[in-house]
Amino acid sequence: MATLHSSRRAVVMAAPGLAGLVAAACGAGGRDAGSDGGLPKPAAGPMELRVATNTSIENMPGWERCAEGYQQKYPTRRVKLEHGTGSAYTEQMVAQQAAGDPPQIFYTSTPGIHNFGPKGVFSDLMPLVKADKTINLRDIPDRALKGYSWQGKLHGMPVMADTRYLHYNVSLFKQAGIPLLPREWSEDSFTVEKFVDYAQRLTDANRGIWGFAHGESFPLKSLYLFGADFWDNRDYTTRSTLDSPAALDALQWMQDTVHKWRFAPTSQQLTAAGVNNSDNAFIQGKAAMVLGGYKHTAAIFPKAQGFEWSIAPLPKGRGSGKRTQVVVVGFAVPTGAKHVAEAWDWVKWSTFQDGACAIMGWPRRRSLTRWTASSARRCQSGRPA
């Protein structure tokens, strides 16, 4: 089973003065959503719902379909998607909140929740959950909820999970006489030793092909493959464990892929070959294996021409069982945002209802809600609820 890795360590604010903006934004001590014990009432007339997101641009078509579905369900409402990138994405939200006009919905992963939730930047959604009889938090895995909760408060609603897995060039595998990789997580025959063997056999310097190209934070995944971790405790971190024997083995293994076995290029070699990252190396057929996630499978790698490709789980490592990183992301309602009722409807639509089908590009991405078989069939067929 995949391991949900998240830390309660605070995220360092990159911009000078951002901490001051947070303090100003929280100074008024806005009420929690639904803090009066009931559900808020929606606006009587037309309104605009602002949804801020920093999702990869490749994912935006799914978000647009989700917004269209929300508007069809609520004809008097219009959704404005506000896309941002980098540190400016969060800085803008905090500045807007300090000015009294934050977006109603803010898309964030667990580090954002840990940093801003306890400071009062995000509303506590638990009163809404308790007042709304149409949803059940038991539909969301406990470990995902844990990352969005603190001291009895729910600072956001986890909506989806994404992970990283192998994308590989099937055509190159066939040319080298290597068996295709397993598709099931439970298949343990594909080990890190076989990964190294395959990558070496796939490397062809004369043709400018590497067996594997690093990218998508593979050092992080290699730690998990060897049973290591960054921190001693995921709830209350006290020290780094990067000096543990397992972590040192993982980091040495990473170095060996480049300098000993020589099946993975350095960044300088990638640049010299005319590619600036692992994505382009794979698309151009210069890397037989790379890491990727939902956005790669759905939008980036379909651009590849002239060869067949597929996906596979990471190899079995030397630690106990299989482990990988799962990134949980969700929606928060900034404190002081207007139209909380409409914002709550968006949270429900995109998490528990048919909006989840669109925003996740069903069936390519895993929803955090435990859907029934009928829900899955409805998503695949495109039929409304």
From TrEMBL:
**InterPro entries assigned to the protein according to its UniProt record, in alphabetical order:** Bact_solute-bd_prot1, SBP
List the source organism: uncultured Chloroflexota bacterium
Keyword Signal in record: yes
* Keywords associated with the record: Signal
Question: Which Pfam families does this one have?
Answer: SBP_bac_1
Name assigned to this protein: Uncharacterized protein
Q: Does the keyword Cell membrane apply?
A: no
* UniProt feature coiled coil, ranges: none
Which SUPFAM superfamilies does this entry report, sorted A to Z? Periplasmic binding protein-like II
In the record, which residues are listed under signal peptide? 1-24
